[in-house]
Amino acid sequence: MARPWRGVINEYRDYMPLDADVDVITLCEGGTPLVHARWLSELTRGEVFVKVEGQNPTGSFKDRGMTVAITGAKADGAKAVVCASTGNTSASMTAYATRADLVPIVLVPHGKIAAGKMAQAIMHGAQIIQVQGGFDECLELSRALAKEYPVALVNSVNPLRIEGQKTASFEIIDVLGKAPDIHVLPVGNAGNITAYWKGFREYRAAGISDSLPKMWGFQAAGSAPIVEGRIITEPDTIATAIRIGNPASWTLAEEARDESGGRISAVTDQQILAAQRNLGAKEGIFVEPGSAASVAGLVAAAEAGEVEPGQTITVTVTGHGLKDIDTPLSHRDPIEPIVIEFDVQAAAKAAGLE
Ligand code: AN7
């Protein structure tokens, strides 16, 4: 019998800055599928694989970092934890905090987080504070609370978050047997691009892989501070997960881009919505809008002739589509329901079989 997956701390223990006897707080996160993508492979004339992070316990990649951050906070004797969030961090943090008996305090932008993510934090028993402002203001408040009160900050400015999230790179190399030529992902607060780059470098330093990918990051056009080289004070995009105007890991993201010979570019909301639809309809993978930014970026680059043929490309899709069903449904033609009587012929007719 195959042994069960034990979560990213236990699977990658040698790469974790934790004491050997630490009490590991885990939901068995990680070990997510790397799915071959036919449509994207044809489009790029390469081999494209999608890293489906929506398969994590709370439906996003945040769980990889949260297991480490919460394990660390608990070991340090914390009683309460705080985070700012566009939604997924709060869903993840509240789940792990409750397992560790820590009080979760969550600051989110008022009216700007997807209903599914809000439901998660509520069901995990959090105190949710809605701030009149965006993510950047929420992060500023969270930092201040952690500085002045006995609460531990678990946003990705906490280095333990990065240590956990880097394991996605390990998994990609473990499955492919090599590093990809290009790795593509969405960029918001820029913790994840920083973490992937760290993971790819650590595996090469350990001699497990012998090359490094180019890091390609994509921001939403209305919230693209790194692309534009300036803080965006009123970021705007339907992809609320990455609606961030002043990323905490801005410089580290630029380093990942420049050291790898990669790029960070912008994609429009229309491109994001189209990529989300196509990934669902052509590959069978339903992701949230923020996650589709990576796919939208790869599609745009391929269509512009910017992808050399014959490359191995991995694309992270960061969160599950079910977290936000309102955005994609409200941006497509209304679906007329077909209602029939209890009758085989009526069903056959409605299904277009006769
Ligand atoms: C689905 O939950 O910032 O560049 O507070 O939820 O590492 O910030 C979420 C970010 C991409 C961007 N995709 O990652 C939060 C939050 C999804 C996300 C990102 C987020 P980073």
Explained architecture:
The protein has 354 residues and is of the alpha/beta class. Helices cover 42% and strands 14% of the residues. Ligand AN7 binds at residues 60, 85-89, 156, 186-192, 241-242, 288, 290-291, 318-319.
Q: Estimate the global geometry from the Cα principal axes.
A: globular
Give the H and E element order: HEHEHEHEHEHEHHEHEHHEHHEHH
Strand order of the largest sheet: 1-2-10-7-8-9
Number of strands: 10
Mean model confidence by pLDDT = 97
Q: Tell me roughly what share of residues is in helical segments.
A: 40-55%
Summing up helix and strand content along with how strands pair, one would put the structural category as alpha/beta
State the separation between the terminal residues, measured CA to CA: 47 Å
What is the C-alpha radius of gyration, as a whole number of Å?
A: 20 Å
Largest sheet: 6 strands, mixed
Identify the bound ligands: ligand AN7
* Beta-strand residue fraction: 5-15%
Poorly predicted residue ranges? none
Number of continuous helical runs = 15
Relevant terms:
10 strands; 4-stranded parallel sheet; binds ligand AN7; alpha/beta; 354 residues; 6-stranded mixed sheet
Write the layout of secondary structure elements.
Elements: H1 8-11, E1 34-36, H2 38-44, E2 47-52, H3 62-75, E3 80-84, H4 88-99, E4 103-109, H5 115-123, E5 127-131, H6 135-148, E6 152-153, H7 159-165, H8 167-176, E7 182-186, H9 191-205, E8 214-220, H10 225-228, H11 250-260, E9 263-267, H12 269-283, H13 289-303, E10 312-317, H14 326-330, H15 344-350
Parallel strand pairs: 2-10, 3-4, 3-6, 4-5, 7-8, 7-10, 8-9
Antiparallel strand pairs: 1-2
The structure holds ligand AN7.
